[in-house]
Amino acid sequence: MSRIDSSSLLQMRSAILQQNAALQRAAQKPAEAAPLATPAVAEPQKPADFTSALGKAISLVNEMQAKAGAVSESYERGETTDIAAVMLQREQASLGFQATLQVRNKLLAAYKDIMSMPV
């Protein structure tokens, strides 16, 4: 059995994040193709609001955390025997939470930079 070091773990994490982003882009392409079938007169789209996008992302992370907790509890009760599915749910929730923390850290750093600017 080989030893796992932090660099290989980070490489695996980045590969998973890249695959996840590619899957999300592929899933969004059919939804983007649907407006072609609509009539030529289309209602103008409103620009995405940052607060709503951030709220949706946080609620998605919360849903992933709740689902991972439910699957873990189900495994602990013996209702589920698929440990791989349990670990996958927990890892997805963990990655989502870590990404949310990174976004929060970047927002705080940007806020501090703006507040320290001379007027």
Automatic annotation (TrEMBL):
Its main location: other. Keywords: Bacterial flagellum, Cell projection, Cilium, Flagellum. GO terms for biological process: bacterial-type flagellum-dependent cell motility. One of its GO terms (cellular component) is bacterial-type flagellum basal body. One of its GO terms (molecular function) is cytoskeletal motor activity. It is found in: Bacterial flagellum basal body. InterPro entries: FliE. NCBIfam families: fliE. PANTHER family: FLAGELLAR HOOK-BASAL BODY COMPLEX PROTEIN FLIE, PTHR34653. Belongs to the FliE family. This is Flagellar hook-basal body complex protein FliE. It comes from Edaphosphingomonas laterariae. The lineage of its organism: Bacteria, Pseudomonadati, Pseudomonadota, Alphaproteobacteria, Sphingomonadales. The gene is fliE.
